[in-house]
C-alpha cells in the first residue's frame, strides 16, 4: 500500500484511469439470447415447435456471443 | 471552481432520440450501463401502469358491497397479476435500473464488469414479464395470488395455464435478477476506482452489494419451488399434492424462504438511496456510516431466519412459533437503527426541502407505521387474528409503497437532473408529491381498520356490514387519487425530457462521484477519477480544506479476477438451488419412507462406478488446467477430451438407470419417490451436460497455431463450475444411493 496523501497533492494527470478503459461495442446477441430463452419456456408450456425455435435462437446467440469474445481476444 | 471533468454533451440523454442513425436498434443493441438503467426504469414504469390498471379495476369492484362489476375469476386474476407485477416487474426492475445506472458512476468505473450480461439481464427480465402477461391471451392469467399457495396452484384447482405462465415468467425474471446481481457484485469488488476502499463506498453502493448477495442466496429457493410446481403441472409430479405423498406446506417454506428476504431485497437498496439523500439535503455528513452498513448486513442475515412468521397459521407448533416470533421482533432492531441514523443526520442540519427530501421525510413516517404493523405480526396471537385480512394488505403496502416506492421516487427526483440533464418542474413535482402521499394514506390507512373489523383479503365482494362500505369507498377514492398522481408523474417526466431547464453537473451540491460528471454523463463516464479519501469524494474535491480523509491507494482486490468471482457467485447460487432439492428429497424420504418405492433397488454398484468416472473427471480437469498453465495446447486438449469422455460416460450411466426405472414404471408421475428422484438427479444431469458443452467449446478454441491461447481465468472459471458439479454429486450419491442401502 502506498503512502497516504491529501487530495490537493495529487495532480489530475496522476489520477487513476477508470475501468474498463475501453468500452465494448453494442451487440444484439444478449437480446436474442433472452428472446431464445423466452421461446424455450413458451415451448415448454405449449409445443415442441416453439421449443425448437427457442433452442435455435439461443444456440445462434450464444455462438455469436462467444465469437464476439474471441474477436476481442484476438 | 470549474467542477466538470468532461464537457457538457449536446444531447439531453445519449442516444435517447430515435431519430439518430440507429433509432430503436440503438437501444436493443446497447450495452451501456446508463442506457440499460434507463431501459430498466422504463420497463418498471410500463409494468407500473399495467399493475396499476389491474388494481384500479379491483378497487372499483370493492367500491360497493355485493358488487358485480367484476366476476370472481376476473377478480382473482387481477389481484394476482397486480401483486406479481408490482413485486417482480416494477419494484425489482426499478431498483436494478438505479443500480445499473449508478453503480459504475458512483464507484468511478466506466461500465459494469460484464456489460453484455447487463444487457441480457434486462432483456430476459422484459421477456419474463411479457410471458407472464401473455397468459391473458393463452387462456387466463394466474389466479392464485402473488404467493401462489399450494394446493391452489395445482392443476386441479387452477386449470387455466395462468400458473404455468407465472412459473415461466418468474423463472425468466429470476435469471435476469440473479445475473444482474452477480454483475453488481463483480463490478463493485473488481472495477471500483483504486483509491476507493470498502470504507469509502457510497452507502447506496454498500446496500446494493449486500442486497446482491441476498438475491443470489434467496432466489434459488423460489426457482426450486417454481421448477417443482412446473413439474407437478406439466408432468403430473407430486411435490405439492398431499394426497400422493407431497406437501402443500413445502411450497410455503420454499416460497417464504425466498419471499421474506425479497421484502428486504426491495428495501435495502432503497435504504441506500435515502442514505445518499438525507446528508445532501441536510448539508451534513451521514450519521453513523459504519452502523448503517452493519445494520444492513444484520438485516440481510436475519432475513433468512424469519420466514415462518408468514406461516404461523399453518400450525407448526409453539416451539417453532416462539423462535420465529423472537427472530421477527429482532429484525426490527437494525431497521430501527437506520431510522435513528437518518433522524440524527437531519438533526442540526441546514435542511432543504426539494421533492427528493420531501419523499424521504414522508418515508420516515410511513415506513415506521408499516414497521410497527409488521412487528404486530411477530406476536403469534395477533397474527392468528389478523392473518389474511386487510390489515396485512395495509401493512405490506406501507412497507412496499411507504418504504420502497417512496424511496424510488425520491431517487428518481434526485437523479433525474443527472439522467436527463434537465430539472423537473418543481411546482408540479410538489403537486405530485402531495397528491400521491394523500392518495396513499387515504387508500391504505383505513385498511388497517377494515382488517381489524375482520374483512378478509382476496374475496371479490363483501356484505354490507357497518363501516365496511365507507372504508372501502375511502380506499377506492384514494387509489384513484394515486392514479391521477401517477398520470401527473408521467406528464412531469415527459415535460422534463422535452422542455426542462438545463441542469449542471452538480445541481444539488452533492457528495459522490456521479456528480463529478456532466449531466447527463457522456458515453464514457470518466477518463480519470478523482482520488477518493472518504465516502464524500466529490465534496472533498470541491472543498479540499474540509476534506473528510486522506487518500490511500487500495489494491482494489486485484487478486480477484472478474470471471472467477462471477463463477464462484454462480456456483454459490446453484448450491442453494441444489440444497433446496436435496432437502425436499430428504423431507419426502423421512415423511413417507417413499412408501415401498424402489429406493433400495437402485443399482448402487453400477451407479458407484459411473460416479467414480465423474469424480475422476475433476482430476483430469485439474490436469487440463495445469498443462494449460504450461502452454501445452496439445496436452490440454487431450486432458479436456478425457474429461469430456468421463462426463459423457457418466451421463450414459444415468440414462441407463433412467431407462431401467422407466421400464419398471417408475417415473416422475408414478409416486413421490419418482418425483423427487428424477428431479434431483435430472437437474444434476442437466448441469453435467452444460459443463460438457462448455468443455466442448473450449476444445474447439484450443486448436491450431497462431491463435491467442484461452485465457487462464476462463479455464479457472469453468473449472470452478466443474468441480462444483462433481461435489454436488457426492451429496446426491450419499443421500440417494448409499444411505438407503446402509439402512436397508
Q: Helical amount among residues of chain B, as a percent range? A: 55-70%
- Beta strand % of chain A: under 5%
> Using DSSP, what is the number of strands of chain A?
1
Fraction of residues in helix of chain A: 55-70%
Proportion of residues in extended strands of chain B: under 5%
The termini of chain B sit apart by 81 Å
Shape of chain A: elongated
Strand order of the largest sheet of chain B: 1-2
Q: What is the molecular shape of chain B?
A: globular
Which structural class is indicated by helix and strand composition of chain B? Answer: mainly alpha
Strand runs of chain B, count: 3
Describe this structure in words.
Helices cover 58% and strands 3% of the residues of chain A. Chain A has 74 residues and is mostly helical. In chain A, helix 1 runs antiparallel to helix 2. Helix content of chain B is 68%, strand content 1%. In chain B, helix 12 (355-377) runs antiparallel to helix 14, helix 18 (562-592) packs parallel to helix 22 (712-743) and helix 19 (604-629) packs antiparallel against helix 20 (633-663). In chain B, strands 1-2 form a two-stranded antiparallel sheet. Residues 1-20 of chain B have low confidence and may be disordered. Chain B is mostly helical. The longest helix of chain B has 35 residues, at 72-106. Chain B is built from 22 helices and three strands. At the A-B interface, strand 1, helix 1 and helix 2 of A face helix 1, helix 4, helix 5 and strand 3 of B.
